[in-house]
Design brief:
It is a single chain. Helices cover 0% and strands 46% of the residues. With 268 residues, it is an all-beta fold. Strand 1 and strand 2 form a beta hairpin. The radius of gyration is 18 Å and the shape is globular.
Amino acid sequence: MSQQINQSIDKIRRQNSEISASDQSSKLSRRLMHYCIHNRKQVIFVAVFCSVVTLGTHPTEDQFLSASLDGTVRLWDCNASAAWGSIPFGAGRPTAAYDPEGLIIAIGVGSEEIRLHDLRKIGAQPFNVLKTRIANSPPWSSIRFSPNGNYILISTAGNVCHLVDSFLGNVVWTFSGYNNQLNGKPYTIEPCFSPDAQYVFMGSTDSRVHVFNVTTGNKLCVFKSDHTGAIQYTKFNPKYCMFASTCTMSCFWIATVPAGLPLAAARS
């Protein structure tokens, strides 16, 4: 069942209570919109007059965050049209994400540091600042925590992403060997973790999914796909051994190896 929404959708995220969050843009203003799948109720939030470049959904509550070029990360409740909190971060293009428990918000600033804020103490200074300062890194495009909270994965506008220790801020591994350009056009690639935080799944403009081992930093295998374009997004099911990848279409993947067989054995 589907319903047409006559608006320009720029970004969309799935909320845990089956609510979709998106950044809706026009020539005059940019707004945030929620659409409830259950009752088809659409909620328009207070207009935001600078581009929203990041959306993140709370892992357990009907809340989400937005990071904008106006220098703030705003916190929203899905049932209220006004933000209930705001975290200023200054100038630059931000990235932001919740931790797996939904208690910490990480804000990437200036592609060189990650500020950790306690969600229960909004208005206070960050309780930790991770000074990554990765040499010669392309600009950051997104950040995300691993399911166990031990790592932060930094996606970039280039063909590398960085795995950072979420407590110390040091770079554990830099993953590369995938493509982010097609016919001279750059694409933003957003990877994901497996639910056990042991692997990183990365799309590519070569229409394949590249899999990296978090423990060793090595590329484990490359999956061929039915995609015909650049795979920009991968997302793992939080409970089952299934993930999705998208270009202009979506593909769903399930394991075809016997239970208990290590993923490394499935490379062939």
